[in-house]
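Fig. S4 source data, part A: sequence.
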Amino acid sequence: MTAGDLTQLRTVGGHFLGLRAAALALRVLGLRAAALALRVLGLCAAALALRVLRRALPRLRFAS
């Protein structure tokens, strides 16, 4: 993820795109309950999930 990508995620539109990306990533990882909770809890949960995913994604890329 580049610095430009992170800037886009900080915009209002980026939050909505980030919510979709986070939900998709959670589904791919098999965490369907977490994806459902993300939808129910809304943008606060999405922002938290994005922070967690930003930390986890580099590790997941190197693990595969």
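Fig. S4 source data, part B ends here. The mean pLDDT is 65.
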